[in-house]
Amino acid sequence: TEDGPAAKAGIIEGDRIAAVNGVSLRVAREDAGDAQVAIAKANRLRSELAKVESGQTVELTVVSAGRSRTVRVTPVLSST
Question: Residue 17, class by beta-carbon neighbours within 10 Å (0-12 exposed, 13-18 middle, 19+ buried)?
């Protein structure tokens, strides 16, 4: 959402999350287009985020326009 934690941290649509709290979500280049690998990557992201409680800061490595950066996000409970 426009006012959500990700937006406040400067994460925009199209950015890729490469790591959560130091746990890599990256896959081999040759597997990048594989649907099963994409599902596994999404599951790993959900698993790592499930370890975080609302209000606890998460460190994300984000890739945007070919550049990597680290941002800190404090998740909140979704209203939906």
Answer: buried
Q: What is the pTM of this model?
A: 0.78
Contacts of 24 (CB under 8 A, 6+ apart): 18
Q: Which residues contact 9 (CB under 8 A, 6 or more apart)?
A: 60, 71, 72, 73
d(CA 29, CA 23): 18
Q: Give residue-wise pLDDT tens across range 3-35.
A: 888 888 889 999 999 999 999 988 888 887 888
Cα 26 from chain centroid (whole Å): 11
DSSP 8-class letter at 43: H
